[in-house]
Every structure is written in structure tokens, then in C-alpha cells.
């Protein structure tokens, strides 16, 4: 089920009504759990079994981990959790990719091998809930937290529908304690939650799907090579689309949880105002970057084992982050580029230690960061390397005699939206959304909320899935 | 429980030693290597009760005004033409019950057929599987592979969509895929839309905000074929599959001219070679044979085109190259609009589809013809008398419209 669908409106209304009824807290949690399974099954019912499997295996692995004193036993339980979780992920998400690459390598060695054709369907959100369940066992293994006291709280942590299929990737310590005690939204929480949902749906339905998506498709799915303007506009539009799509989902999820009285983590902090790539990753998909940092980068040694090891860990973490997004070498290159950006930035940090850019230098560095982020986005969006190269050639003015692709109205709307997005991110760089909203005059806030809600109503149209569902 | 790895010196790539500026709250990015605490979510201090009440009132008011404006533009409540959901639902019906009569094809058989008239004539309400912007060939193949279907399939075709299906396969594939893999969530959304749709004209996708904005640009950038040149709204579709040309197109000259221009740009002279035609013929025959092997049958139908569009279509694939070989190669009978004496000089407002009144006349004529070609369809004993062109076109208009004479086919 997706947030921008009619069925979700009905589903959410029923969940809110049930959650406000005078049932016991345990019954309310059971309601939420059932609702979450329905939310997931509404896409493809059989895949609920995978969700159960992942949930149950990690529950027992965590109990085994907590009970075991012997380090080998602890490692064995941890391995059970990792093998099952990553095994499912690898089979469903990377099965084709691994087989194809194996066949390619074998053919390079002179053997002919054609992998059997299979029709594996990628279960929606598998990367998200796999990381969520893995963080549960990993936190216990790393002695950061204790196991949940009862299965219901833990199962609800894994399955809670607002974050289930596209994050924010919650940690057990963030959510399980909230399920242990009764939570009911206050009237203000409910209204603010609805306002956040409106903002999220506006970003997704109106900006990402309505205005930016068609521009991106024309440039990236088109048959002709784009010129300088079209290549840049297509890529800038994608930078807006991916942000509005994913941040829109996150903010809708946060709003939905808030309407039920729960708090989810921030996932974005105005990333296009980042100055530098370290700053970017502190602002973009925060829950994923923090997950990779805590469970990949730090265990690999972090920055404690010398420069070479640090750069290796950094690059490996970003490559894994790229691969997490999709089973394609283009995603790996995207991750690799960010690893390279972070490494170069780290190298430059020493000679520029103590340097604090002023407003103009800060703005210039921010734009430079945005520029490099856009270059990396090309590999994220392009389906193949040749396509990415064609777009990059266009961005560097190397597609001579390119025919114009985008109509003027698309150039205008993309410029306005991306310009507006950059301005908003710059103004909000050191603020939270809540802080900015608190400072608005109630009339302004009313007008903004009305405009966004009305735009969502009149945009309507075919509900598109969120881009991050496929990850 | 204490963390075993939460060393402050072990800084990750995303952590810095800077203190957060005032007003920002900590996130997972600021807490490396530790168990993350329950998140904070402040509620901004605002009069949320009053604000939300005013927002609800304003949104309802604005939406009502928008709905009023959409109805002024003659959008019809309950129109389901924006998605393939209705098509998918009807396609699944073929799997569930015996379907004696199936209509397959592109937008022409879709908008040029009046299901009520078919029912009046034969007592059978056919299932309409025409797809606007689609091709009948893929649906015919899909039905041929479906062992459930043992009835009569009338396959509508226009040369542009049937023989040169570079552009028409995409929509058809999407529709077929949806019918086979539609998620429970999507089906439920469709059912909800069926409940609220009859009260709302504003759900029309072609009149969504971004589409309306995109249509503002009439070629401002030279050399670009932009959204202004896309196909705009053409038809109306009811949940039972009955469809017609959008009523506004029957009298709005600007929209007619736009549609006509698009048809010519969409279907430029296309070099379709004999080999490609032969491939289509082979695929058609394979599908027809499969249906016949189960006891079913197929009849082809060529709905009419306007004079100007017909010149383009027949200029490149004349009857002798497309229609006649199709019937001969597949050993199938067919009804060509040019051969229906009672349905000549009909009204095609945008050159491609019949006005609703003329669609009834055309349906009457072709269904009567089909009953003579196959024993699988019969006229009811109490079928209404035949219709003819004057039932939908005043004689004076018909003679004026068609004055230049017949197209050389």
C-alpha cells in the first residue's frame, strides 16, 4: 500500500479510529500489528511470509545472543541472524545480479554459461526491514541494548507500517520503548501529524511525480543524446525528484506515526544546503548513513587504525551503501563516487584545518557540493553505463548537434522548483522544520497548508510508487 | 546497557566534532556507535485547532470550485478513462466466466462501439477490451493464450496501430500486465474510486494540475515536441467498459483541431516494410488458430477514419497491402467500414473517432454484418430496425463534410 493512494486514506482512517477506541494497550498494539501486515500484504500477500521469517529468526537469535555468555556461542547466534537476513536479501535482491556477473566472469575465462532464467520478484522494502531487524541483533551483540521484553513490541518495531517499506530505518532502541507504554496522540500531535503528511504528499505527488518526474524521464529515457541545457535540467530535476520522493515519504511516515502518538527519527535535514560531503551525509538519508556507520564503518576499524585503513573503510562503506540501493554496478559507482568525494574532503581537511568559510565562500562551497552530488546522481538514475556517459557528455557540453528535448515549460518549472528547493534548504540549514513552522504567522501557515493540500487534491492522477520502494 | 564500541574518538565518516547550531536537534548522524534513543518530535507552538479547521474549510471550498470548473469543461463524473484499472477488471472477467462476445483493439473499436446497441441487437453485452493508444494484436495474442475464452472476438484495427505497433505496444503491455499482476491495494483503490467517482469530475488525470501547466506551452522552445503535442483527453469510459468520444470533442473546434494535428504528428508517413507486415500476419494467424482450436472464432473490423487521416493511413498501407492480406492469410472474415452501406459519411469530429450518435449507427451496421459472417452471433428476433447515416448526421451536413469524395484506398 502506498501513502498516495485512495486505499491508504481509508486504511489510515480505520487505524486512527481503532487506535482511539478505549481498548487495552495490548489490544491496540495487536491492532497496529495486524494493520501493518495488511499494509504490507496489500502489495503482494505471499511476501508477508518473508517478513515473518525475518522477524521470528531475529527474535530467537537475539534471545540466544542475550542468554549466551560464551563468545563463540554469541558469534554463532549472530551468524544465524546475519546469514538468514542477508541470505534473503541476497536471494531476492541480488540473485540475478550475482548470477549474471558470475556468467560474465566465467565467459571471460573462456567457458560458456547461461544462467537459468528466473522470475524472482523483489519484495517491497526488503532492504529496509532487513536492516531494521539486523540492527536489533547487532545492538544486542554489541551490547548496546537488551532484547525486547515481549514479542509483540519487537514484532511491531519491525512491522510498524509508517516506516516498514521505506524507512526511516528505525533502531529497536528508538521504537520498542515507545511500544512498551501506552501512546495516544494529543489533538495538537494529530493536527501537526496531518500537516506533515500533507507536506510529504505535496512533495511526492505534486513536485516529484507531477512536475519533475516527466522531465527526468524525457532526458533519461529518451532516444536522443541531450545537449548541455537538457542534460543539466534532467539531472537537476532528478535531484529534486529523488529528494521530494524520498523526503516526502519520510515526512509522511513521520506524520502518520505522530497521528498515532509515536515519534520516528529524522531522515533528512535539508541536504542540498550541505557544505561538503561529510555534511551532506549528515543530512541525506540519515538513518541509512548512520546505520552503515555504526554497523559497517566502525566495526571495520573506523578512523582508529591509521589513514590507509580509514580510507579503505570509508570507500568500502560507501560501496556497500551504493549496492544497498540496487543490484547494479551503476549504484556501486554512485557509492564509489561519494566514497571518493568523502576521501578527498578528508585529505583536504588537514591543510585547511581551522578554516571556517564566510557566507559567500560557504554559499560557493555549498553550490560546489550540490554540483558534485548531481554528477553522482547521473549514475544513480541511469539504467546503464552508456546511458550515464551520454548524459555526462551532455552535461559537459560534449554532445555536439544535440537536438533540444525539453519544452520551455519544463525548463521553467524545473528551474522554479529546484531554485525554490535550494533556497528553502539554505534558509532552513540551521533550523528544524518545527522551529520554522513555530515562527510562521498562523495565517501564513494556514495559507501554505491549504495550498499544499489543494495542490495534492487537484494533482491526483495515477498513484506512483515511491522510488525507494525498489531499494 | 553500556556500549562496547561507543568511543568518541572512533569517528565515522558522517560525524563531526562541531557543536550543533542552536535550534537543531540531535539525530542518528550525531550519535555514532551508540544505541539510539527514542526520537524527539516537538510540536510547534501554533493554534493548530483553528488552523486545521480553516484549512479543511478552505480546501473543501476550493475543491468545490475546482469541481464546478471541471464540470463546466464538460468533464464527466465517474469517467474511468484515466487508468487501465477498468480494462484490467474486464480482462479478468474473461477468465472467470464464459464470454460469448469480446471486443478487442485500439481506441477506434473502443469509442466507435455502443455496447447498449450491441445488446439491443443480439441480447449479448460484450466485454470491451479496446485500449486507447493500444493495439489489438497483443490483446488478441493474450486472449489466444487464455484457455478460458471460447467465444467470438471482434478485433478492431487501424493500420497505424496494428501493423506499426512501435508506439502502441507499450500501453497494451502495461494494461495486460496490470490485469495479471494488479496488487490488492490497487484493486481496492479502484473500488473506492468507483464509489466516489460518480460524484466527482475532477478525478480526470488529463486535467491534473501538472498536466494543465504543461499544456500552457505552445512550442515556446523551437524544435521541441513538448507536452502540448501529447494526446489530450479523447474519450469517456464507464466502469462497465462502455466508452464514447468525449462529449466536448463533438463541438469544441479548438480541441478537435488539436487532436487532428496530434494524429498527423503521431502517425507520420511510416516506412513499414513487407517483412514487418508479414510478421504481424503470422502472429495474427497463430492467435486466430489457437482460438479456433478451442471452438472460438475471430472477425476483424476496420472502423472508419476521416478523409484527411484516411489519406495518410491508406497512403502507406492500402487495403491491398494490409487489410486484404490480413483476412486472406488468417482465413478470417472481416467487416470494413467502407463496405457498410448504411454507415457511410459518418461524423468523425477529430478525424479518428465517431461522434457518439454515429458510433451507434456504425455499431448497428457492423454487428448486423458480423452476424452474417459467423454462426457464433445472432440477431435477436425482436432486434430494432437498422440505422443509417441520417440517424446521426443531417443530410446537408453529410454532403458538405464528404464533398471531396472518397479516399483512394
From TrEMBL, chain A:
It comes from the Bacteria. InterPro entries: Ac/AlaTfrase_AlgI/DltB, AlgI, MB_O-acyltransferase, MBOAT_fam. GO terms for cellular component: plasma membrane. It is found in: Cell membrane. The chain crosses the membrane at residues 6-25, 37-57, 77-99, 120-142, 154-170, 242-264, 311-337, 358-380, 405-424, 436-458. One of its GO terms (molecular function) is acyltransferase activity. This is Alginate O-acetyltransferase complex protein AlgI. The lineage of its organism: Bacteria, Pseudomonadati, Acidobacteriota, Terriglobia, Terriglobales.
TrEMBL record, chain B:
Keywords: Membrane, Transmembrane, Transmembrane helix. Residues 1-20, 381-409 are annotated as: Disordered. The chain crosses the membrane at residues 48-66. The keyword Transmembrane helix applies. This is Uncharacterized protein. It comes from Tunturiibacter gelidiferens.
Amino acid at each position: 500500500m502506498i501513502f498516495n493512494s485512495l486505499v491508504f486514506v481509508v486504511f489510515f482512517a480505520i487505524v486512527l479510529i481503532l487506535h482511539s477506541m478505549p481498548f487495552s494497550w495490548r489490544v491496540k498494539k495487536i491492532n497496529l500489528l495486524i494493520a501493518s501486515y495488511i499494509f504490507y500484504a496489500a502489495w503482494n500477500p505471499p511476501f508477508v511470509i518473508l517478513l515473518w521469517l525475518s522477524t521470528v529468526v531475529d527474535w530467537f537469535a537475539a534471545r540466544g545472543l542475550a542468554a549466551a555468555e560464551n563468545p563463540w556461542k554469541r558469534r554463532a547466534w549472530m551468524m544465524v541472524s546475519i546469514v538468514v537476513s542477508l541470505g534473503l536479501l541476497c536471494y531476492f535482491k541480488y540473485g540475478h545480479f550475482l548470477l549474471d556477473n558470475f556468467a560474465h566472469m566465467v565467459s571471460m575465462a573462456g567457458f560458456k554459461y547461461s544462467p537459468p532464467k528466473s522470475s524472482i520478484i523483489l519484495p517491497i522494502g526488503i532492504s529496509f526491514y532487513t536492516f531494521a531487524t539486523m540492527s536489533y541483533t547487532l545492538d544486542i551483540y554489541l551490547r548496546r541494548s537488551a532484547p525486547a521484553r515481549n514479542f509483540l513490541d519487537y514484532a511491531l518495531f519491525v512491522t510498524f507500517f509508517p516506516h516498514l517499506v521505506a524507512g526511516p530505518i528505525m533502531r529497536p532502541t528508538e521504537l520498542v520503548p515507545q511500544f512498551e507504554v501506552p501512546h495516544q496522540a494529543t489533538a495538537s500531535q494529530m493536527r501537526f501529524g496531518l500537516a506533515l503528511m500533507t507536506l510529504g504528499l505535496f512533495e511526492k505527488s505534486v513536485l516529484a511525480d507531477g512536475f519533475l518526474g516527466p522531465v527526468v524521464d524525457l532526458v533519461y529515457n529518451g532516444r536522443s543524446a541531450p545537449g548541455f541545457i537538457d542534460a543539466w535540467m534532467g539531472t537537476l530535476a532528478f535531484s529534486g525528484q529523488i529528494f521530494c520522493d524520498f523526503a516526502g515519504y519520510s515526512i509522511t511516515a513521520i506524520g502518520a506515526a505522530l497521528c498515532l502518538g509515536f515519534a520516528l527519527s529524522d531522515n533528512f535535514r535539508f541536504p542540498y544546503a550541505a557544505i561538503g560531503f561529510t555534511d551532506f551525509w549528515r543530512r541525506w538519508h540519515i538513518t541509512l548513513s548512520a546505520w552503515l556507520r555504526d554497523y559497517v564503518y566502525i566495526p571495520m576499524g573506523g578512523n582508529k587504525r591509521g589513514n590507509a585503513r580509514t580510507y579503505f573503510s570509508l570507500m568500502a562503506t560507501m560501496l556497500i551503501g551504493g549496492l544497498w540501493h540496487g543490484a547494479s554496478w551503476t549504484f556501486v559507482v554512485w557509492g564509489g563516487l561519494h566514497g571518493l568525494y568523502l576521501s578527498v574532503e578528508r585529505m583536504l581537511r588537514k591543510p585547511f584545518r581551522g578554516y571556517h568559510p564566510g557566507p559567500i565562500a560557504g554559499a560557493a562551497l555549498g553550490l560546489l557540493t550540490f554540483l558534485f552530488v548531481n554528477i553522482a546522481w547521473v549514475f544513480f538514475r541511469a539504467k546503464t553505463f552508456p546511458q550515464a556517459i551520454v548524459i555526462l557528455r551532455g552535461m559537459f557540453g560534449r554532445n555536439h548537434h544535440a537536438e533540444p528535448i525539453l519544452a520551455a515549460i519544463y525548463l521553467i518549472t524545473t528551474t522554479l522548483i529546484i531554485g525554490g528547493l535550494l533556497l528553502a534548504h539554505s534558509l532552513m540549514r540551521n533550523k528544524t522544520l518545527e522551529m520554522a513552522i513555530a515562527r510562521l504567522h498562523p495565517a501564513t501557515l494556514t495559507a501554505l497548508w491549504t495550498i499544499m493540500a489543494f495542490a495534492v487534491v487537484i494533482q491526483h492522477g495515477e498513484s506512483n510508487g515511491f522510488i525507494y520502494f525498489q531499494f | 546497557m553500556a556500549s562496547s564500541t561507543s568511543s568518541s574518538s572512533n569517528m565515522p565518516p558522517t560525524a563531526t566534532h562541531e557543536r550543533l547550531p542552536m535550534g537543531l536537534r540531535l539525530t542518528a548522524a550525531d550519535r555514532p556507535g551508540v544505541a539510539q534513543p527514542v526520537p524527539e518530535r516537538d510540536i510547534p507552538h501554533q493554534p493548530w485547532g483553528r488552523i486545521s479547521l480553516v484549512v479543511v474549510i478552505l480546501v473543501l471550498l476550493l475543491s468545490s470550485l475546482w469541481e464546478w470548473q471541471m464540470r463546466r469543461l464538460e468533464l464527466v463524473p465517474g469517467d474511468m478513462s484515466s487508468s487501465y484499472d477498468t480494462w484490467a477488471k474486464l480482462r479478468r472477467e474473461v477468465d472467470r466466466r464464459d464470454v460469448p462476445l469480446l471486443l478487442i483493439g485500439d481506441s477506434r473499436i473502443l469509442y466507435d462501439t455502443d455496447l447498449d446497441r450491441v445488446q439491443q441487437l443480439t441480447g449479448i453485452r460484450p466485454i470491451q477490451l479496446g485500449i486507447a493508444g493500444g493495439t489489438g494484436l497483443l490483446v488478441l495474442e493474450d486472449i489466444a493464450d487464455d484457455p478460458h475464452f471460447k467465444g467470438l472476438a471482434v478485433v478492431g484495427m487501424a493500420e497505424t496501430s496494428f501493423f506499426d505497433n512501435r508506439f502502441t505496444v507499450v500501453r497494451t503491455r502495461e494494461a495486460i500486465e496490470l490485469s495479471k499482476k494488479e496488487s490488492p491495494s490497487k484493486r481496492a483503490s479502484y473500488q473506492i474510486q468507483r464509489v466516489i467517482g460518480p460524484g466527482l469530475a475532477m478525478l480526470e488525470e488529463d486535467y491534473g494540475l501538472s498536466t494543465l501547466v504543461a499544456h500552457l506551452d505552445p512550442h515556446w522552445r523551437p524544435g521541441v515536441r513538448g507536452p502540448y503535442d501529447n494526446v489530450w483527453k479523447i474519450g469517456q469510459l464507464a466502469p462497465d467498459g462502455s466508452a464514447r468520444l468525449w462529449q466536448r470533442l463533438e463541438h469544441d473546434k479548438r480541441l478537435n483541431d488539436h487532436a487532428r494535428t496530434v494524429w498527423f504528428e503521431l502517425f507520420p508517413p511510416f516506412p513499414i516494410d513487407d517483412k514487418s507486415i508479414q510478421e504481424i500476419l503470422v502472429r495474427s494467424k497463430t492467435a486466430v488458430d489457437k482460438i479456433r482450436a478451442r471452438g472460438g472464432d475471430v472477425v476483424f473490423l476496420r472502423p472508419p477514419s476521416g478523409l484527411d487521416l484516411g489519406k495518410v493511413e491508406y497512403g502507406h498501407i492500402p487495403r491491398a497491402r494490409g487489410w486484404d492480406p490480413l483476412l486472406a492469410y488468417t482465413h478470417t472474415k472481416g467487416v470494413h467500414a467502407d463496405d457498410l452501406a448504411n454507415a457511410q459519411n459518418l461524423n468523425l469530429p477529430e478525424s479518428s473517432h465517431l461522434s457518439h450518435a454515429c458510433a451507434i449507427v456504425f455499431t448497428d451496421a457492423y454487428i448486423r454484418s458480423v452476424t452474417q459472417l459467423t454462426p457464433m452471433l445472432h440477431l435477436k428476433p425482436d432486434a430494432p430496425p437498422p440505422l443509417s447515416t441520417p440517424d446521426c448526421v443531417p443530410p446537408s451536413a453529410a454532403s458538405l463534410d464528404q464533398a471531396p469524395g472518397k479516399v483512394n484506398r
